[in-house]
Amino acid sequence: MCMYKIVHWWDFVGNKSLLRRKLHAFFYSCMVFLAGVGYAQAPILLKDINTLPDPILTGTTLGSDPRFLINHKNTVYFTAKEKGAALGLWKSNGTANGTVKVTDLPGSAYGLTSAGNFLFFAADQPGVGYELWRSNGTTAETVRVKDIYPGSFGSMPEGFTNVNGTLYFVATNAANGSELWKSDGTEVGTVLVKDIVTGAAGSNPQGLTNVNGVLYFVADDGINGFELWKSDGTAAGTTMVLDINAGKTGSAPQYLTVVNGVLYFIANNGVNGYELWRSNGTPAGTVLVRDIRGGSASSMPQFLTDFKGSLYFSANNGLNGYELWKSDGTESGTVLVADIQAGGAGGNPQYLKNIRGTLYFSATHGSSGRELWKSDGTAAGTVIVRNIAPGGDWSNSNPLFFTDGKGIVYFTANDGEKGTELWKTDGKEEGTAALTELRSGPAGSGVSNMLAIEDTVFFAADDGKKGSEIWKIVPCATVDLTSTDTVICHKGPYSLPEMVRNSRDFASMVWRQGSLTGAIVSNPEMVMLTAATTDFYVTAQMASGCISTAKVTVTTIPYPERVGSLYVLLEGAYQKSAGAMSTLLNQKGLLPGQTPINGLATASRQPYYSAPWFYEGTETMNPYPSSATDWILVSLRTAQNDPATTVFKAAAILLKDGSSVVKGCPGKLKNSTNYYIAVEHRNHIGIVSGKPILFINNAFFYDFSTQQSYIPSGIASIGQKQSENRYMMYAGDFQKSVPAAINANDITIWKQQNGQFGRYAAADANLDGEVNALDQILWIVNNGLFTGVRF
After folding, report:
1. 429: which strand partners?
2. Residue of 536, 445, 766, 530 whose CA lies nearest to 2
3. Where are the transmembrane segments (predicted)?
């Protein structure tokens, strides 16, 4: 049971708000119906590691580019870039606070592999090159294991394979060439297993595979060509299993795969072409399973997969094209499972994955393109799951990265509209649905590196705003309430589902009043509160069957008049001779809600309700005080450069002397707590206080005009303009972006509005009700300035 005391402000904003909430409820219920098994789990950003602004794409950050996700001791490890080009080793327990950098790495890295007590990988170090490194998850113990190839070339270790806690890999040095090595994580325990080709030539081992504690691989001893080898970790125990294709040509074994302790692979004996073989590690037990495509032509088996104790794979017998086959290791037991696409074209099954007794793969049957299929091992049970991208054989959804998330299969697919995004399936057409689209539009979010650890699926993706970062899906989620200490300043209507951050994770949510067995709330989207304090309980069930509950206590208080006050000046509007700002917009009747003297009406509410602010407050003012200059948007946040930490927001009138009284519902504001104050204006660069301000006795105060605002370190950004002893917000930001900048986009707006008068216009930088050369001059002076502050 999650016990929270919640008080929350829902600012009822009229019919538009009612419509939005009703649509929310409508789409929620409809999506449950369409998904069949329930609303698909929503991906969650695990951590925004790299928050540096992208210098090319305005309003986005660079991303940390997580790679090589691996499970080591039930912790996910990966590489990522926190700042600039510096690469670090990271780990995560699945929470944001538990996603931390282990250490900075000296250069690029690859091949993260868990073996024994260590995480092994290759890393590049200046003057050393790529060598073997290890980590136990601490900074002090993330070190280079051994300089196998002294000098700057590096041994380029690869093929990392865990065999009973010992790491086997391939490395190159000047004396031995490319050969088989092993390591226990110590320098002395990192040794050459065997110099198969004596001298610098190297045997170039490949395809390292653990079979019952014995390492199998493919190598060229310089005499027999590439053939199948095995090793027990000693030089004497490292031997060729069989010279399948006599002579220097070699059989070139590939796709080494273990099923029931037997090694399967494909090889070419020089007679039958590339066909299916198996081996028990002895020459006599290394045999051709079946010549699927008779003669010297190759059936070229691919995507070898262990499924229900048999080997499943894709192969071409010369008649059916590439289709789904299976083998029990005998010639008679190696048979075609299903002719997915009749004729010689073949269904071409690819990326076979066994997930809890069902074989998932992609294939085409002619009437559809490459789509999601499944098989139970029979012809009748080999069927298309869903045609995700309808449109005939030319339309392909290309499903990939099948990953088990506690019985729900997650994968990527492209439906032809949203680009390649995350999907889920329970193996049924009605249970196959897209998850929340991470990146709007057809570009796709570039999901990769999917990894399941217990109940959580981790992956890398780019939502188009934060760059490539690490995300997660949790099939069994608890109810995540939005807040614990905000305030409601009205009796309703009030939306209970909006109290739950992850409401879209659940197939159903039942709200009750008073207790878990109390009366069901018939319309939780539109609750009218009849008491000062009301307890609500929610029972939320996910598609996987997981159930979570939570308690919400809603308290109403009277609407306060004043929350705080501040001083802020606007460049352009400020007149040095008068020591105050212009009130021409007010005098001409051009402020929102006034009746302009020339009849050009303006909206009768605060001006920040539309893009890019979308602030839904209903603040209005009529009549305006004679000293009114314009509206500003004020917010309080707990982190200086993170708008996601905003706990209060209100539009306020700015008077000509720079003063502003901020009224509103205090929401989550706590007395005796420090907050940063942010101020935005419709055509000036926004600012944030340079220091935290104490909220005390239900009020705050800050004077921006006497001190510089916050300027992020490490970038050539600006805060406020200093004129004599006064500070003021820079003018010219007509086209709002994140972070704010004054650039060519702004002058485009000015050109569109130049010559307009009697208007409440975005390009009116000096707030005189006219757009002309005076406003352009302000833009010219400030062109090229930007702030690293996010709003």
Report:
1. none
2. 536
3. 25-46
- Sorted by sequence, the CB contacts under 8 Å of residue 5 that are 6+ apart come out as 484, 485, 553
Q: Is 491 exposed, middle or buried (0-12, 13-18, 19+ CB in 10 A)?
A: middle
d(CA 195, CA 569) in angstroms, rounded, equals 77
**Nearest to 709, CA basis, from 733, 694, 726:** 726
Instruction: Residue 508: give its domain's CATH number.
Output: 2.60.40
- Of 9-13, 160-164, 678-682, which gets the smallest average pLDDT? 9-13
Phi–psi pair at 393, nearest 5 degrees: -70, -10
- Rounded Cα–Cα distance for residues 742 and 735 (Å): 8
* Backbone dihedral angles phi then psi of residue 106, each to the nearest 5 degrees: -70, -20
**Global confidence as pTM:** 0.62
CB 476 within 8 A of CB 429: no
Residue given tokens 């105050």 in the structure block: 580
Beta bridge partners of 3: 551
Q: What is the pLDDT of residue 179?
A: 98
Percent of the chain beyond pLDDT 90?
Answer: 74
Q: What value, to the nearest 5°, has the Cα angle with vertex 318 and ends 317 and 321?
A: 80
Taking a C-beta distance cutoff of 8 angstroms, is the pair 401, 444 a contact?
A: no
Indicate the burial class of 526 (C-beta count within 10 angstroms; 0-12, 13-18, 19 or more). Answer: middle
Of 789, 687, 781, 777, nearest in space to 739 by CA: 789
Q: Which H or E run contains 577?
A: none
Exposed / middle / buried, residue 501 (Cβ in 10 Å: 0-12, 13-18, 19+): middle
Residues spanned by the domain of 708: 566-782
* Residue 241: both structure tokens together: 């299993």
What is d(CA 499, CA 502) in angstroms, rounded to the nearest whole number? 9
Instruction: Mark whether 503 and 573 lie in a shared domain.
Output: no
Give phi and psi for 632, each to the nearest 5.
-125, 160
pLDDT at 394: 79
757 three-state secondary structure? strand
Residues 518 and 594 in one domain: no
Residue identified by tokens 């399973």 is 289
Task: Please state, for a pLDDT cut of 70, what percent of the chain lies above it.
Answer: 92
Type of residue at 468: S
Q: How far apart are CA 705 and CA 721, in angstroms?
A: 10
Give the length of the chain.
Answer: 791
Helices (H), 721-772: 744-753
Same domain? 512 vs 649: no
Whether residue 166 has pLDDT greater than 90? yes
Strand ranges for 202-273 from DSSP E: 206-211, 214-220, 226-231, 239-242, 254-259, 262-268
Crossing angle for the helix pair 744-753 and 773-782, nearest 10 degrees? 180
Whether residue 3 contacts residue 551, with contact meaning beta carbons closer than 8 Å, is answered with yes
As to burial, measured by CB atoms within 10 angstroms (0-12 exposed, 13-18 middle, 19+ buried), residue 116 is: middle
Last residue of a domain, one of 530, 555, 580: 555
If asked whether residues 596 and 545 sit together in one domain, one would say no
